[in-house]
Every structure is written in structure tokens, then in C-alpha cells.
Design brief:
single chain, about 140 residues, mainly beta, 2 helices
């Protein structure tokens, strides 16, 4: 990690776009029809809710059924930027005065070694996630 690296220097690509749904099977079928392929499916809680990751080219979607769909323009929940060092990016976000939604970097058991992430608020109240897929 570079000394005094700005948040802009931590991400290198879009990680995924987050879309909540009321009907996971219907949503998966829609995106499959557009050419997306399921990359992973994970339980999100003990109530049967799921999250599915679907990909075409290098574009990844994160689709989950625990929050419900908005059913109007603005229905995308968040965009996620790919980072290799979520902890460093989190520190830079705080130091640069971004509005960070969490008090610390979050962890989820997605993929082989999990993910680390945090969210900031954009100027239009949009959510921008910074996500690291843990390598080992």
C-alpha cells in the first residue's frame, strides 16, 4: 500500500451492480436470457434468503431477495468498485471526509475466502460500495 494513497487510487474496476428482487427465480431467468451466467449463490441469513452473482464478460450483478425490489427507476441498490485492500481504502475514505455508512470494514462469507467491504454515500444519496474478494 502506498503512503497517503487517496481513495481514488484503491479501486481498479467495477466489482458489481447490486439489484434487490422480489422473485429470485424470475430475475435469474431474465438475466440468463440476456446472456448472464450464474457464478455463485449463497445464503444470506437463516430465513432462506439468497444472493446470486451473475456475470457476462466482466460485468457482474449481485441479486438478492431479502430487501425487496423498488419497482421504479432508481431500483439499483448500489454500484460496487473492486479494491485489493478494503482496509486501506476504508482508512482513506475516512481521512478524505467521505460519508462512510459503516463504523468498520464489513465481512461476509461469499466466495472461497469471503469478502471485505464498506459503503460511502454519493452526492445524490447513492450507495457506492468498495469490495475486496479475499484471495487467501
Amino acid at each position: 500500500m502506498a503512503f497517503n494513497k487517496s481513495l481514488a487510487g484503491y479501486f481498479d474496476d467495477l466489482a458489481h451492480v447490486g439489484i434487490p428482487t422480489d422473485d429470485l427465480k424470475k430475475t435469474i431467468a431474465f438475466w440468463e436470457k440476456l446472456g448472464f451466467k450464474k457464478q455463485g449463490q449463497f445464503d444470506t441469513d437463516d430465513q432462506g434468503h439468497q444472493v446470486v452473482f451473475m456475470k457476462v464478460g466482466h460485468l457482474m450483478l449481485e441479486i438478492w431477495d431479502s430487501d425487496g425490489a423498488v419497482h421504479k427507476t432508481g431500483a439499483i441498490n448500489h454500484i460496487s468498485l473492486n479494491v485489493e485492500d478494503a482496509d486501506g481504502a476504508f482508512k482513506a475514505a475516512k481521512e478524505e471526509g467521505f460519508t462512510v455508512k459503516e463504523d468498520e470494514v464489513q465481512h461476509l462469507d461469499f466466495w472461497k475466502h469471503g469478502i471485505k467491504f464498506f459503503n460511502i454515500v454519493g452526492p445524490n444519496d447513492e450507495t457506492i460500495e468498495f469490495c475486496e474478494v479475499v484471495k487467501d
